Amino acid sequence: MLKAGVLGAGHLGKIHLRLLNQSEKYNLAGFYDPDEKNAQKVVKEFGYKYFSSVEELIDAVDVVDIVTPTLSHFDCAEKAIKKGKHVFLEKPITNTVEEAEKLIELVKKHNVKGQVGHVERFNPAFTSVKEKIENPMFIETHRLAEFNPRGTDVPVVLDLMIHDIDIILSVVKSKVKNINASGVSVISNSPDIANARIEFENGCVANLTASRISLKNMRKSRFFQKDAYISVDFLEKKVEVVKMKDAPKKPDEFALILQNAEGIKKQIYFENPRIHQNNAILDELETFADAINNTITPVVTLEHGTEALRVALQIVKFL
């Protein structure tokens, strides 16, 4: 079992602590948090070991799980990697693309592995259909959330939209050609609602909307490709797959048939992929353990996290 330690015991940090503690692939060594009052509260409530410094925790583990504010991601990861430790970084990977690129160089130099916490890659609704998403040419995403003061220190693009940016970059096998965006600051000092249009070199267009001042929560993505429409509800863990194929000469009387202007007939049919319920955060942490133990590439590499951050920061420039 890999010895793991968590840096940061805030809302998400506590979730990571609990899951690492119950995982059969990790041995939780403990945590460090600079807020000693909060740290002692966590010790009293859960009994996890508290380390007195970042360095002390790094020395005691094989894997450092960094769940601190984004501004400190680079410093924490750099210290860990230079000590030969594997690092798991919550999203966004770092504060700047330059910092992210330095981490990529460091993990190669010190022969360790890194993974970024883009948790929607492990959402059971997405994993049930990701193999069916082939060369999408139009993508539409909506990620809407009710207002929560937590996270408003950064634009909604880095808080929410970056999840959809990463998903889109994972399924569109083409380079970004052009980006346009607009946004509005309603209650925070940074934009609370934003819309972005990403154009890819292969002709694919993605339209993304993110809001943290919505009256209801929504996390939906729609993928349009030749002869198929795929809808993924990341919140409700539901999918909809609608496909078309050439209509048979003698279709079933209940078959849904469409005929275009050229007289070509297509039959519409529906697929219902099985969705295996899971804990996406536990899955991402355990696949990282598998990547370390089996010397394979992590599901969400530091390179993936860097590209998502690069696109997100390009969008932020328009806001």
Strand content: 25-35%
The helix content is 25-40%
Structural class by sheet pairing and helices: alpha/beta
Terminus-to-terminus distance = 45 Å
CATH names the topology of the largest domain as Dihydrodipicolinate Reductase, domain 2
Please name the CATH architecture of the largest domain.
2-Layer Sandwich
Q: Which strand order do you get reading across the main beta sheet?
A: 7-8-9-6-10-11-12-14-13
Number of strands: 14
What CATH first level of the largest domain would be assigned? Alpha Beta
Number of helices: 9
Main sheet record: 9 strands, mixed
User: What is the 3D shape?
Assistant: globular
Low-confidence runs: none
Number of domains: 2
Mean pLDDT: 95
H/E topology pattern? EHEHHEHEHEHEHEEEEEEEEHH
Give a quick summary of the entry.
It comes from Abyssalbus ytuae. This is Gfo/Idh/MocA family oxidoreductase. The protein is of the alpha/beta class.
Name the descriptors:
globular; 5-stranded parallel beta sheet; Rossmann fold; Dihydrodipicolinate Reductase, domain 2; 2 domains; alpha/beta; 319 residues; 9-stranded mixed beta sheet; 9 helices
Structure characterization notes:
The protein starts with a strand and ends with a helix. It is α/β, with parallel strands linked by helices and 319 residues long. The chain has helices spanning 11-22, 36-46, 54-60, 73-82, 97-109, 124-129, 156-171, 280-293, 302-316, and strands at 2-7, 26-32, 63-66, 86-90, 114-117, 138-144, 176-184, 193-200, 205-211, 218-225, 228-233, 238-246, 256-259, 265-271. The chain has two domains: 2-112, NAD(P)-binding Rossmann-like Domain (Rossmann fold, 3-Layer(aba) Sandwich); 121-277 and 312-316, Dihydrodipicolinate Reductase, domain 2, CATH 3.30.360.10. It is globular and about 75 Å long. It has a nine-stranded mixed β-sheet. It has a five-stranded parallel β-sheet with strand order 2-1-3-4-5, with helices on both faces.
